[in-house]
Design brief:
One of its GO terms (molecular function) is nitronate monooxygenase activity. Keywords: Dioxygenase, Flavoprotein, FMN, Oxidoreductase. By secondary structure, the chain is of the alpha/beta class. It has a domain at 8-79 and 120-247: Aldolase class I (TIM Barrel). Helix content is 42%, strand content 13%. Strands 1-2-3-4-5-6-8-9 form an eight-stranded parallel beta barrel, surrounded by seven helices. The protein has a three-stranded antiparallel beta sheet with strand order 7-11-10, with no helix packed on it. β5, α9 and β6 form a beta-alpha-beta unit. α3 packs parallel to α7 and α9 packs parallel to α10. The chain binds flavin mononucleotide. Residues 22, 42, 44, 70, 72, 144, 165, 186, 189-192, 218-221, 239-242, 245, 326-329, 331 line the site of flavin mononucleotide.
């Protein structure tokens, strides 16, 4: 018997239920797809060779279901950026501020690098990431920030379904013009880079602008009732990020997991201190310090991440609790425990079916 939740978009993508999940762990993305949804691996923090390796791993973990890969491709970055040239452009006042944070929170130097202490975002790096993503054979290519038409065409030519995340009708139009086949309308409530329009307001406007092309709702979704509401707003699915941070497969450091479990919706803040672009994160001493009177203005992308890369690599390695944070949406209110992806999916689907059933009383 077919699942009543299997809609046109599910059929087109070869999935059973219209629940989409973005995660930085291949184990999470694979588990979402194995549970019937579509797991999308967020690859923006991988260098090109690591990305190839991760996408091979993703396929091995999920050989029988479609999966996706997501890249951030902002325009306007220089063609090539070396760490040296970017480092030379960092103002001394900003370097001093970061050194003060090292001292105030007694952060030892990192012994291992992370993406931001090793790479600098540039068009040349994006090109290598795109090459790895398009050649990987994963079924879905998502563009998180920026929709370069040439990249979307290459993904389509490689047989991938193309998705673009948008935060306004203007972005939606641009993404459609660039050839995106499916839109994720991501509202202000969302974790990660976010625009100023709330999910409830944004989704129906993007649905109207998309003129029949499928739209998925994102931002602040943590329950099945909200998945059902997304369908009622005209979307063909719901796309979640924050909720998966609380899954066993994500293996967050315990101190960070505790911070998220204890956070309420109002404990997330939008800050440019993370990447240089407005990004919703769980509040921490890191975001507070950049808000402090006398703190410097965060730099633009890619300079802010080059500035803070070593500090944040050290914070992660040495688990410096006050400074630990992660991108998180207002949906953090529903992240209350660490449990397997399959349980989260099972609950979401049960709640979705219940919400849809309860609405029929208005039509009988
Ligand atoms: C930890 C985290 C990292 C994210 N990283 C990306 C990313 O790399 N690319 C992207 O397109 N979206 C990213 N997002 C945004 C998600 O794709 C999604 O739109 C958002 O999480 C939806 O709102 P929610 O967090 O309330 O579920 C991220 C979100 C979170 C929480």
């Amino acid at each position: 018997m077919t699942d009543p939740l299997t809609n046109n978009l599910c059929t087109r993508l070869g999935i059973r239920v219209p629940v989409f999940g973005l995660a930085h762990r291949i184990e999470v993305a694979a588990a979402i797809s194995r549970a019937g949804g579509l797991g999308v691996y967020a690859a923006a923090r991988d260098g090109p060779s690591e990305l190839e390796h991760k996408l091979r791993g993703l396929r091995q973990l999920c050989p029988d279901h479609p999966v996706g890969v997501d890249l951030l491709l902002p325009t306007g970055l220089p063609e090539h950026n070396t760490r040296e040239s970017v480092a030379a452009a960092l103002p001394q006042s900003h370097r001093d501020f970061v050194q003060e944070l090292f001292a105030r929170y007694q952060v030892p130097q990192a012994t291992r690098g992370n993406f931001f202490s090793q790479y600098v975002r540039s068009q040349a790096l994006f090109e290598e990431q795109v090459e790895a993503a398009v050649a990987s054979g994963v079924e879905v290519f998502a563009a998180g920030v920026g929709t370069p038409p040439g990249v979307l065409r290459r993904a389509r030519d490689a047989g991938q379904h193309t998705i673009a995340l948008v935060g306004s009708v203007r972005h939606a139009q641009k993404a459609l013009d660039a050839g995106a086949e499916i839109l994720v309308a991501q509202g202000y409530d969302a974790g990660g880079h976010t625009g100023p329009i709330g999910t409830f307001t944004l989704v129906p406007q993007v649905v109207a602008a998309a003129q029949g092309q499928p739209v998925i709702a994102a931002g602040g979704i943590g329950t099945g009732a909200q998945v059902a509401a997304s369908l009622a707003l005209g979307a063909q699915g719901a796309w979640l990020g924050t909720l998966w941070l609380g899954t066993r497969e994500h293996e967050l450091p315990p101190a960070l997991a505790a911070k998220l479990i204890n956070a309420r919706s109002e404990d997330t803040v939008i800050t440019r201190a993370h990447s240089g672009k407005p990004c919703r994160v769980v509040r921490s001493a890191f975001s507070d310090e950049w808000e402090r009177r006398g703190a410097p203005e965060p730099l633009e992308m890619p300079f802010q991440q080059a500035l803070t890369g070593e500090l944040l690599a050290a914070v992660e390695e040495h688990a410096i609790e006050p400074l630990m944070y992660e991108a998180a949406g207002q949906s953090v209110a529903w992240l209350r425990d660490i449990e397997p992806v399959a349980n989260v999916m099972e609950r979401l689907l049960r709640e979705t079916r219940m919400a849809l059933r309860s609405l029929t009383r208005y039509t009988e």
